[in-house]
Design a protein that fits this description.
Length: 172
């Protein structure tokens, strides 16, 4: 058997292991957001924006839930903080980041790996979650954290009305 065939065969045997090793080195950052059941006569699903603010006050969109079926961005500006920081300059829908409103319950949001890979080790960040509901209220919850690829993260916060329990977890 020629040497090149042996090398190729050995590399093919190693390739799956290398792929797993590469995947394991990436840190996953996941947020769970609870939309509580409210005792109101007319309940509307909230619009929700989730973004990450860095030490330089740069903002990185993570997720936006809105009424995509109408293709109408009119009410997005009611997510005031998000709208001022980046919403007004975006073209909706944002591929991979925007989606429909969600029902009552706990929802998981995965921070894109490309974003977590760009975070600075030891820097202070804040996960911002803003919710607004038609004929309802508006609420913003901030979850500050220090980014470290080597250390796991498990932080909880809670809203008062429009948002319930929020957790931010990082697994290595």
């Amino acid at each position: 058997m020629p040497m090149s065939s042996i090398i190729r065969k050995n590399l093919l045997c190693l390739a799956p292991g290398l792929a797993v090793a590469g995947a394991a080195s990436a840190s996953e950052l996941t947020a769970t957001v609870e939309l509580p059941r409210l005792n109101v006569a007319e309940y509307h699903r909230p619009y929700v924006a989730v973004w990450l603010e860095g030490p330089d006050k740069a903002h990185h969109n993570v997720s936006v839930w809105h009424l995509v079926r109408r293709n109408d961005d009119t009410w997005l500006k009611d997510l005031r903080q998000w709208w001022r920081k980046s919403g007004r300059s975006l073209e909706m829908p944002m591929d991979g980041l925007s989606g429909p409103t969600r029902p009552v319950g706990v929802h998981e949001i995965q921070v894109p790996v490309a974003l977590t890979e760009s975070l600075t080790e030891g820097a202070e960040y804040t996960l911002q979650i803003e919710a607004v509901r038609e004929k309802g209220g508006r609420e913003v919850v901030s979850v500050p954290f220090t980014w470290s690829k080597a250390q796991a993260l498990d932080i909880t916060a809670s809203g008062e009305r429009e948002l319930g329990a929020i957790t931010l977890r990082q697994s290595n």
